[in-house]
Amino acid sequence: MYEGELKVAVRVLPHGTGLTLPAYQSAGAAGLDLIAAVPAESKIVIEPGARHLVPTGLAIQLPEGFEAQVRPRSGLANTHGVTVLNAPGTIDADYRGEICVLLINLGSEPFELTRGARIAQLIIAPVTRASLTVVKDLNGTGRGINGFGSTGATSCLEKDG
Question: Which of the chain's ends, N or C, has fewer CB atoms near its CB within 10 Å?
């Protein structure tokens, strides 16, 4: 497991100029706060039930073997009902484009977003790649196949009906 500080190269895009870089908000924080790179003279309004892809004005270069996850901010979710639609969004180590955040408003009021607002968290994490092997049976456990409420159904298809 990686220990210490991981160096990540960041490219600030023209519309991100002047914004602060993502930062940890406390000594024990796991996520860097992502900032909205909305033009200074405008705002984004996300109506209830609507979604919007919000630019951050940043691109990153992750070291091989790492990913970045875009996760919701609990304050936005609790106060406004605004969250990340594809949470957690995954940024692969070989992606070099702008980090964008897909926000959805699950609240009952329009949500206004202006330049510099903290919109999501960015978590940098190591990646473990799996090699899948087809087998006839899996080892037994105490839980077995019980999941999704453990109703006794043996497959997802049985639980849907």
Answer: N
- Transcribe 58-122 into DSSP letters: EEEEPPTTEEEEEE--HHHHHHH-EEETTSSEEE-TT--S--EEEEEE-SSS-EEE-TT-EEEEE
For 9-129, CATH number out of 1.10.3470.10, 2.40.30.170, 3.30.565.10, 2.70.40.10 equals 2.70.40.10
The per-residue pLDDT for range 77-102, each reduced to its tens digit, is 999 999 999 999 999 999 999 999 99
Structure tokens at 71: 């996760």
Q: How far apart are CA 138 and CA 98, in angstroms?
A: 41
- The span from the CA of 16 to the CA of 35, in Å, is 9
Reported pTM? 0.85
